[in-house]
Amino acid sequence: MALENTAPITIETTVNTPVEKAWEFWNNPVHIKNWAFASPEWHVPHAENDLRKGGKFSTTMAAKDGSMSFDFGGIYTSVDMYKLIEYVLGDGRKVKIVFEADADSTKITETFDPESVNPIEMQKGGWQAILHNFKKYTETN
């Protein structure tokens, strides 16, 4: 499936928590392990994060039954604390995450280049499910 010249995909959510907590839960590997997966059948057994321009991150997403796993990682190209994170994935795709603070809530908008294997709607749904897990985890912890 060729997806050349496909526009970036954007997803978003508003988390009912101050931006400082949202930022901490988004970037701390202790928290990443609790939300960075799309469904309850998956988990994150390993996460590393060096949040700075030029820093690297790596998250291992795995099926709980051991049937499959993959590493999701890249290099940060821009970090503006409590506002913006940009990175390039290992395959060259770009991702931009914007944090917008508003009193006791934080709007998170994530824009990413699609990959060329899975349908656009599947990619959007998967990333949105992970963002939903982030919202649920952050609001209940």
From TrEMBL:
Any one Pfam family match given in the protein's UniProt record, by short name: AHSA1
Biological source species: Pedobacter mendelii
Name listed for the protein in its UniProt record: Activator of HSP90 ATPase
Domain Activator of Hsp90 ATPase homologue 1/2-like C-terminal: 16-138
Gene3D superfamilies registered for this protein in UniProt: 3.30.530.20
Membrane-spanning intervals of the chain: none
InterPro entries: ASHA1/2-like_C (IPR013538), START-like_dom_sf (IPR023393)
Sequence similarity: Belongs to the AHA1 family.
